[in-house]
Design brief:
Length: 127
Amino acid sequence: MQGRYGAYGADRLTRFLLIVWLVLFVVTSFLRVRGLQLLPLLILVYMYFRLMSRNIPARYKENETYLRMTAGVRTRLNGLKRKRVTGDNAYHIYTCPNCSQKIRIPSGKGRIMVHCPRCSNEFLKVS
Ligand SMILES: [Zn+2]
């Protein structure tokens, strides 16, 4: 593997191709359409060709092109993932008008009476 592109580990494009290959492999084995079954094989050959390639700058450029082309989609996907994990929109933070205590309220509840845990003050808010 010395001097081959694959010696440096799988890049993003390789990992993406692997997923595409897996999906196509499953789909085409279900559909059983002749010719279509060549598709996963072509991807496998291309993947193997890239990993075995000695033209490292060219492969590197391919990966860069792939990253650039998918940058928008990947940022959006990452944004969605982050939102799910931390729940960006799941809570509203309100400040108690009496004692300035910050209170976290689940969003989407409509008009609710917020009860301050520090000073027991109650105030109406729309979440
Ligand atoms: Zn308070």
